[in-house]
Amino acid sequence: MLFPSKKGIKLGFYKGNELPDPDHILEGSGKISRYVEIKDEKQIESPAIKDLLKNSLTAYKQRIKK
After folding, report:
1. Which pTM does this prediction carry?
2. How many of the other CB atoms lie within 10 Å of CB of 26?
């Protein structure tokens, strides 16, 4: 999910509370979703965000197989 905000863009992850986040970049306190606030273009290229996207895709593929 993408959420434009005054500070930047929030990249939201459904079931983000279940994703590995060794760099602790996920924010939010909801029961299921988490997000990363992207404030500049350099942040998009960060390895931590790339890992979250890969892990999110893997988790999605596992959910749809069930």
Report:
1. 0.86
2. 19
